[in-house]
Predict the structure.
Amino acid sequence: MTAQISFEMQARDGLARTGVISTPRGEIRTPAFMPVGTAATVKAMMPESVRATGADILLGNTYHLMLRPGAERIDRLGGLHKFMNWDRPILTDSGGFQVMSLAGLRKLTEKGVTFKSHIDGSKHELTPERSMEIQKLLGSDIVMCFDECPALPATDKAVAESMRLSMRWAERSKEAFGDRPGHALFGIMQGGVTPELREESAEALKAIGFDGYAVGGLAVGEGQEAMFGVLDYAPGLLPEDKPRYLMGVGKPDDIVGAVKRGIDMMDCVLPSRSGRTGQVFTRCGVLNIKNARHQDDPRPLDEACTCPACRHYSRAYLHHVFRSQEIISSMLLTWHNLHYFQDIMAGMREAIAAGRFAEWEAGFHAGRAAGDIEPL
Ligand SMILES: [Zn+2]
């Protein structure tokens, strides 16, 4: 245990890295995948089950929590960790991205964003200062700078102006965050798909100085090729000795490609959301449990998976409870998907430490290319 948040890189293989982020609430093994606990819960999962999948850290959403139940209320009730019964590290986003994607009637100024809640239409304001205050009230271990993320495609001029606003907000975020031992503040690089703008953004963030750095503005519909295009150079613009976080990513092959390019942390709703819609990720790619081919199939989703859904239930059962809209369907499929995502992370950490990431990656792609087992 430590009073400060620190990052120790333990091994490197090509550009891929593995290490440990130490926090007063426990260690985060990197590369790390963070399940998303939007409304103070990873949907359909008990916190101890999330931990059992191998997660060291969760992500909470500032935008959702400020609207309901409110950051001040969570603070009065002892903070987010106690409120949701998760005593390990929590990273909170700044609210900026979801104001863009969910809120109505936004008004953007130099000061910040005013918007209407998507829940009840009430009016709210988020500024760098208010975002830092909310994340402090929540008790977040890793706090994100308040930034603006333009939807792509956008003109170079619009991306540049937005990035420069985010850099001014990053400076205000750092100022408002202050000195908080045991808590970390991460800066967020913007700049779209333009190398010069990414470089300018990285320089601005490094001049301010952060405990970690995120690559922002990706996974917003640009496609994997464009995203990897940015990741081919963007992580290298950031300090080597700090964690690098790719926000909102992604599918298993996005995650593997990002780690290969030097990313240490990621988050995505995909495994949990897909669990509720019947989409299952395995070593053999994606399967849809609602498909009739599973209705008489006594085999598990994945013979090699050690999650409860695979150890104790057949495809036929999972198909049945999904079709019957039973709650256990979301619970089991979410558990399996989160378990699989954490398996990928553990596999990569081991492979990087052993210097055989390329071999591991080839096996990962070969399994997916082989596809799901043949129907009975
Ligand atoms: Zn499983």
